[in-house]
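Notes from the 1:1 (GR / supervisor)

We went over the backlog. Supervisor wanted to see one worked example end to end before approving the batch request, so GR pasted a single chain during the call. The sequence is below; no edits were made to it. Supervisor asked that the structure be written out right there so they could see what the output format looks like.
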Amino acid sequence: MLDYYDRLTDRLRAAGDWIAPLGLRLLLAHAFLDAGLNKLSAGTQAPSWFANQEFVVPFGLLSANMNWFMVTWGEILAGIGMALGLFTRFFALSLIVITVVAIAAVHWPSSWDSLGQLWEGYSVSRVVEDGEFRGNYRIPLLFLVMLLPLVLMGGGKLSLDQFLLKLTDRSDLIHGRAEDGLAIGLGLMLLALMSVYLITSWAIVLFLLAVLLIAGFLRNQRRSS
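Structure output shown during the call:
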């Protein structure tokens, strides 16, 4: 019975290499491409609702029109790339940056004193309590969770990335996974990036853990060489 279950789950994982990334890519491609095209149709000048936002460093150092241009074309190009599965990791990482900046500027609570209070903002509509904005970050947070596996695992077998791997005789990289401290450290670095503007203390802890793991991996590599 266990052997049958193991063989079944092995085939489900194989099917997942084809189907799971494709579904994520197409949904995200539609959402971000639609958002980018709507911004493009609004013109090259940043609208007042956008220009009045306070963006985090370094984006806050740029003009509102420059930020509007970057997010417009970032969403359009990333949407096309995600749909095709071309440079999936790069575009998924770019969309993570865009989404985190948007959460910090628009959807994050103006202030919060506890995780319970922060959780009140996990909503689609704006949550206001005692005259203070509690947030509405549910949808962008879901986008982040959907983008994360695409950065870590790529666009899957139904993608131009897979075609390029085969074209350059590197298709063995799909299955040649290295599970070590460097891999975990890179994953923690990504999580730190996602939380740096939202919960900075968490980002610092994740970054330090990542540095320790990567340093330990490099030290072991030097010893073994």
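Supervisor's comment: The CA atoms of residues 162 and 174 lie 8 Å apart.
Batch request approved.
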